[in-house]
Structure formats: structure tokens, C-alpha cells
Write a structure and sequence with these properties.
Number of helices: 10
CATH superfamily of the largest domain: Histidine kinase-like ATPase, C-terminal domain
CATH topology of the largest domain: Heat Shock Protein 90
Largest sheet: 5 strands, antiparallel
Number of domains: 2
Strand order of the largest sheet: 2-1-5-4-3
Helix content: 40-55%
CATH class of the largest domain: Alpha Beta
């Protein structure tokens, strides 16, 4: 029943170990899930390397101990998974519980349990596998917090729109044209904020489920980038940030869904503005290779922590420094999925405290007069 790693000899070197048993131990020790086995008395007979990694106990430390003494799980006292398996002679899958590591830290895990019985129903032993779901739990908490934040931000915009509209109704005829224009500009701005937040979630959700239908047509990238630059110029000026657009040559026509592709650029540029300080510069550049159009958005903002860099395109992930800023946590995830739906990709380079550079790479289609 055991799968101890101390016996690593080949079948010829150790006649007591069959090739099948050696292969079984190899498989169990290689899988990325914690696995341990127990005998009929529920004493541990095997403990794979992943179990050591998660719990902090070595195989030598746990051999012969009761599993409950080692794991000290949240269900060990009253609802022991192995005891339930043994009573019902049925495996148990995906139990959510906790275990306590050697250093005393309690972590959430998902656990599977199964018993091994002989032909007469007598217990020979059991095996239990588990994996640490702390990152998943943290992601769920972050998601819940971000959804709550999104609801708060949406409510804030709706409240502002409603308040301004009510003021216009009550003072209709007494407000000057200039005052009416200012109120309407506020409504327009808050409406745009709402649309931006909602579209981020809708685009990401639809792309993940395959329900978003992209409408491809010939697209002038130069036109899209110029319009984007003009649209963000006023916001950059308000934040005292210099926004620069550099392009050496006209870009080729590509096949894309212009509306959704525009969101890729907008989400990344919006991110650059959010994390840039006053008196810094954001540079938008475009170029192309033989087969690809390449658009770069570079800022001089706070940069991205190297620990966060691998996860910035994950939905609901927000870096350590990002938590002080408003945001849904899906903007970059949506940008990545839209770019990939166009056959493209997004790369990022960043140094903490020195800014970031996002590169959007898209396949291009060169149109000729014959086409």
C-alpha cells in the first residue's frame, strides 16, 4: 500500500519490488497533487513529495502516525473523510476543508478519499489526495471585492447622472446656456464611464464563453489610433500628462472588428493614464513588419511589481500598487482575449518605478487594387 521513495532500485536490484510497484511509486511521486496512503489502522504508509511540500512534514516524520495527528484537518475530529469512506465503501470527492501545516498555518484544501477493500469487504487501506486552494480562495475574495467596487462605482455614476438630471428639470428655464452645457457634459462623462465598465465585463464574459461574435472588416489602423489619441488628449491634459503619438509610416489595412479592437487600445491607454503621475509622458507608437502591425503604448508610471507581472492579464487580478486605484480588474484580461480573437497577442515589459510598455501585435492584411 505504501509508496515510499527510499526504495528506488530497479526490479533486478531489489527482488522484493515488482516493476508494477516501482512504476506506481514513480507515478504517485510525480503527480502535482499531495497524496498519502494509510493502512487498515489509518496509520500513514506513504507520503509523496507534494504532500511534503504542502504540509512541511517529511515522509520520515509522518510514517506510522495517524493521519489526523499530522493533518489536524477541519473535519478530522467529527467528520473524518476516511472514516466516512470506510463506513459507506464509497469514495468521496472534492471535499472542501482545511488542514494545519507543520508550522501551524491553517490552509484551505480540496480533498479526495478512497478505501481499498478485499473481496470479502475487509479494509486493506486507503488513499487520500488533496491540494492547496489558498490562491483560488484569495482570487474569489478579490473577485467579490472588485464586484462590490464595480457596483459602488456604477452606483456613484448613476447617482451623479440622476442628480444632475433632476437639477436640470427643477431649474429648467433659469439656468444659462453655459450652465446647462456644463451639466450635460457631466452627464455625458459619467455615462461614458458606465458604458466603459459594463463593456469590459460583457466583452470578457462573452469571449470566455465563446458567445461574442466579432464582425471583421477592413480597418484603417492609423484612423483608429488617431481617433483614440484625440479622444484621450483632453484627459491627459487635465492630469498634466504629455500624450505623444509617433508613427513613421502609414500602417497597412487589416481585417478586424474595429469596435472591439479599439477597446484593446483604449483599455491599455486608460491603464497607462491611471498609473502615471503628473509631468510624465505616455507615448503611442506604431510600426509594422512584413506580416504584423505593431502598436506600443509606453508610460513613465509606477511600473509593475515582478511578482505581479505573470498575472496582470488574469481576470480580477490587481497588483499590490493597483489596489489604491479604481478599476474592475478585467480591463487587461478583456484586451488580451480580444487581441487573441484577432489572431494577435499582447506583450508587456515593466520595471518597478520606471513605467511599463505594452506591445499589441496584430496580423495584417495588405489590400491591393485587384482585391
Amino acid at each position: 500500500m505504501g509508496f515510499r521513495t527510499r526504495d528506488t532500485g530497479t526490479p533486478k536490484e531489489n527482488k522484493n519490488v515488482s516493476p508494477e510497484m516501482s512504476f506506481d511509486r514513480f507515478v504517485i511521486n510525480s503527480i502535482p497533487t499531495a497524496v498519502f496512503s494509510v493502512n487498515a489502522d489509518l496509520k500513514i504508509t506513504g507520503f509523496n513529495p507534494k504532500a511534503t511540500e504542502i504540509t512541511g512534514y517529511t515522509e520520515k516524520e509522518v510514517m506510522g502516525s495517524y493521519c489526523g495527528e499530522i493533518l489536524r484537518g477541519g473535519m478530522c475530529t467529527e467528520q473524518c473523510p476516511l472514516q466516512s469512506v470506510l463506513k459507506e465503501h464509497k469514495p468521496i470527492s472534492f471535499i472542501a476543508t482545511t488542514i494545519r501545516k507543520k508550522d501551524g498555518e491553517t490552509i484551505p484544501v480540496r480533498m479526495n478519499s478512497a478505501g481499498l477493500f478485499d473481496g470479502d469487504g475487509r479494509l486493506l487501506g486507503a488513499v487520500e489526495s488533496f491540494w492547496d486552494i489558498s490562491p483560488l480562495k484569495a482570487m474569489q475574495r478579490e473577485r467579490d471585492n472588485l464586484i462590490s467596487m464595480l457596483a459602488h462605482d456604477m452606483k456613484s455614476s448613476i447617482t451623479i447622472i440622476g442628480g444632475i438630471a433632476l437639477r436640470l428639470l427643477k431649474k429648467m428655464g433659469s439656468l444659462s446656456n453655459e450652465d446647462q452645457k456644463k451639466h450635460l457634459q457631466i452627464i455625458k462623462k459619467e455615462s461614458a464611464n458606465l458604458e466603459f465598465m459594463v463593456n469590459d465585463f460583457l466583452d470578457y464574459a462573452r469571449l470566455q464563453t465563446g458567445n461574442l461574435q466579432l464582425d471583421f472588416s477592413s480597418t484603417l489602423l492609423d484612423k483608429e489610433l488617431t481617433e483614440l489619441f484625440d479622444a484621450y488628449q483632453n484627459e491627459a491634459i487635465r492630469n498634466q500628462i504629455e500624450l505623444e503619438f509617433r508613427t513613421d509610416e502609414a500602417l497597412s489595412v487589416i481585417e478586424s472588428d474595429a469596435k472591439h479592437l479599439r477597446r484593446v487600445f483604449a483599455n491599455i491607454l486608460d491603464n497607462a493614464l491611471k498609473f502615471s503621475k503628473e509631468n510624465t509622458k505616455i507615448t503611442l507608437t506604431s510600426e509594422e513588419s512584413e506580416n504584423e502591425a505593431i502598436i506600443k503604448i509606453k508610460d513613465q508610471g509606477c511600473g509593475i511589481d515582478p511578482k505581479d507581472l505573470p498575472y496582470i492579464f488574469d481576470a480580477f487580478h490587481r497588483g499590490r500598487d493597483a489596489k489604491q486605484y479604481k478599476g474592475s480588474g478585467v480591463g487587461l484580461a478583456a484586451a488580451k482575449t480580444i487581441a487573441e480573437a484577432h489572431g494577435g497577442r499582447i506583450k508587456v515589459e515593466s520595471k518597478l518605478g520606471m513605467g511599463s510598455e505594452f506591445t499589441i501585435i496584430l496580423p495584417k492584411t495588405i489590400k491591393t487594387e485587384d482585391e
